[in-house]
Structures are given as structure tokens and as C-alpha cells.
Amino acid sequence: MLLLKLFFAFIQVGLFSVGGGYAAIPLIQEQIVNIHGLMTLEEFSDLITVAEMTPGPISINSATFVGMRIAGIPGVLLCSIGCIIPSFCICLILAHFYYKYRTVSGVQVVLGAMRPAVVALIASAGASILMLGLFQAEIQDAVLNNLRVVELGIFVAALFLLRKFKMNAITIILGSGVVGTVIYALMGAI
Amino acid sequence: MKKDYSKLWTLFKSMFVLSACTFGGGFVIVSLMKKKFVEDLQWLEEDEMLDVTAITQSSPGPLPVNASVIIGYRMAGVIGSLTAILGTILPPMVIISVISVFYEQFRTNPYIAVALQVMRAGVAAVIFDVVINLAGNVLKTKRVLYIGMMIVAFIATYLLDVSAMLVILTCLGIGLVDLAVTLRKKKGTVA
To answer: Under an 8 A CB cutoff, do A92 and B183 touch?
Structure first.
């Protein structure tokens, strides 16, 4: 019964979290903490901390975390499946129509207008992450004195390796983590 | 049939690796997917990847899952969708299941905290690399409308915190107006 409750709670999370990522957090809180009381608020903030520290979409992360705490592996599976069912159905339909009509010239004109916006959205996400990396703050709160030189060096070096040598992106991401940690350890900062 | 399996395997493997290394949210994985599927494997066109991003951003649910559904469908139908989803959700499921047991040790480990902080610099570099190419292509269209929309959309999302979905829907509206104008022009030249 509890499992079924969990399953439907995460279907709702999946269905109503438009815009992904942080938009999903209040929704998950509503379902898991407020409505069903499956977690305390403190456990929930732990969950957000972990979700931010690990790869993957935050709603899958929380589905797994909640599922594991409450019902072990079956809970994990059920919560995650619940979370992706709405995505799967809706995107499958959209994909079908997109590939059916995308070569129509009128559709191309409309899609053409959306592409510059998508580029801007990706750029905006990149800028936010860069500010967090360099200042540990968003742009509004960034203070030049707090500029982290190690991160700046890694960013410039990484961008150079990507542009000049077409280095693999995964290698860059993992490599920057390793190199940066070693530098901070050598500086005695850890 | 054998070839289909190898395509599915590549799809699964690609999504698994990308998902396991995506720190920092939806647009990070979009950048990585663009590199993998457009540049390395050449399965998709660049415009197509941008369209898919716009669709995933305006649909409910986690962005990486939505993108997997569409790209999987494109490559191998419904089976492709399921394969791509599995690749996407398996890494976070396994990682979180393990971490939920060692939560305290994980959260308080200073090395992990530093690694995650510096990794942001690398992630930002990857996104910038992708954005430089994409923005370059928008500039190449030499359409003032597109270039202006890109700049305004950036200011709106980054500085003014306008939601991504609102930006996309607004641009959809502009696209429809653009279409109406183009059609009218065509009509005008015929008559």
C-alpha cells in the first residue's frame, strides 16, 4: 500500500515538474514531506544536499533516495519508474509529431525562431555554473576579491584543451575534479 | 538485426557515461549530448539537437530523461527510447542507492567537497565550448531577428531570472509571427 502511494506520488512529481531541475524540488517536498509524511524536513534537506553532489536529474535522485529509505531496492525501482512514466508518454508523442512534421517548411520557420533561445538557455546555464565555480556565488553576489584563482586556471586550461585539441568532454570534467583536488591538497587547503 | 543491437548498445553506453558524469543539471547533459551525438557519432544534426532541447525543456519531467526518450525514438523507435532511458537513470539510481547508506561519510568528506567545487570549472568550460560553436552558427545566419533574440533571451534568463519555459514559449510565438509574415510576403510576390 505504501509502495503504491510512493509510486503515485512520484508520477505526480514527474508530471508536474516542468522545466526540470530545481523546479522539481518544491514539488517533491510537497508530495513526500507535506502530503504523505514519508520524510522529515531535515531528511529532505539532506536529500537535496546529496542530489546536488551527485550526477543525474534531481527527481530521479530523490526518487531513488526516498525509495531506498522506505522500501529498499523495490522502492527505488517503483519510485523511479513512477517518476519517468509521464516523461516517457508525453515525449514519445512529441517526438512522433516532431519527426513527422519537422521537414515542413512552415514548421522549420517556427523552430528556427526557437533555436537562438535554446542557445541562450544553454549559455545562461554555463554562465551560472561558471560564477558558482569562480566565486561560489551567483553573479549578483559575486565579489572580485573572492575570485578563486585555481578554478579560473582550470577553466581557462579546460577551455583551451577543448577548443584546440578537441579533448573528450568527460575527460575534461573528471580531470578538472582530480587536478583541482590535488592542487588544493598540495596547497594544504584541505 | 545484429546492426540494430550494436546501435542500441552504443545508445545505452553513451547515455550511461554521459549521465554518470553530468554534474550540475539539465543543460550540462544537453551540451554533452550535443558533443556525443552530433559531433562524435554524427547521428543527429545540430539544429535537430536544439529542437530536441526546446521540446524537452517545455515538457514535464527531468530534462535528461526527456531528451533520452526523443533521441532514443529517433534512433530506434520505442525500444530505442527505453534503452536510452535505462542508460540515463541507471547511474544516478546506483550512485544514490549506495550513497544513501554512507550518507554521513559522503557529505562530510572534505576531498569530495573540493572535487565537486573545482569540477564546476571543468563543466563550465565544456558548456562554453559548445555554446561558442552554437552561438557562432546563430551569428552566421546573419538574421538580426535571431541574433537579437539570442541576446535578449540570454539577458532574460541569466540576469532577470525569467523561466526557461517562458522564454521558449515566447520564441515560439515570435516564430509563428515570423511564419505569418513570410507567408504574406510570398503571397505578395506571387500577386
So the answer is: no
Residues from chain A that touch B184, judged by Cβ atoms under 8 A, are none
- Kindly state whether residues A133 and A49 are assigned to the same domain: no
Last residue of a domain, one of A101, A135, A150: A101
Question: Which residues from A are below 8 Å from B135, CB to CB?
Answer: 119, 123
Nearest to A123 among B50, B154, B170 (CB): B154
How far apart, in whole angstroms, are the C-alpha atoms of residue B28 and residue B117? 15
pLDDT in tens, B6-29: 999 999 999 999 999 887 777 888
Find where cell 576531498 sits. B111
Residues of B in contact with A116 (CB under 8 A): 138, 146-147, 149-150, 153, 171
Closest CA to B96 of A57, A25, A20, A74: A57
Residue after which a domain boundary falls, among A66, A83, A101: A101
Cα A149–A153–A156 angle (5° rounding)?
135
Same domain, A152 and A116: yes
Radius of gyration (C-alpha) of chain A in whole angstroms: 21
Q: Could you tell me which chain B residue has the CA closest to the CA of A181?
A: B115
| CA-based nearest residue to A115, from B38, B33, B134 | B134
**What was the pLDDT predicted at A146?**
82
Q: Which three cell numbers stand for residue B135?
A: 552561438
Whether residue B48 has pLDDT greater than 80: yes
The closest CB to that of A158, out of B121, B151, B176, belongs to B121
pLDDT tens-place string over residues B71-90 = 999 999 999 999 999 999 99
In which residue ranges of chain A is pLDDT below 70?
A: 19-23
3 state SS of B24? coil
Number of neighbouring beta carbons within 10 Å of residue B186: 10
Give how many domains chain A has, as a whole number.
Answer: 2
Q: What is the pLDDT of residue A21?
A: 60
Q: Which residues span the domain enclosing A144? A: 105-186
Q: How confident is the model at residue B191 (pLDDT cuts 50, 70, 90)?
A: very low
Interface contact flag, A169 B129, Cβ < 8 Å:
yes
Q: Are residues A86 and A118 in the same domain?
A: no
Query: Smallest Cα–Cα separation from A2: which of A87, A72, A88, A81?
Result: A72
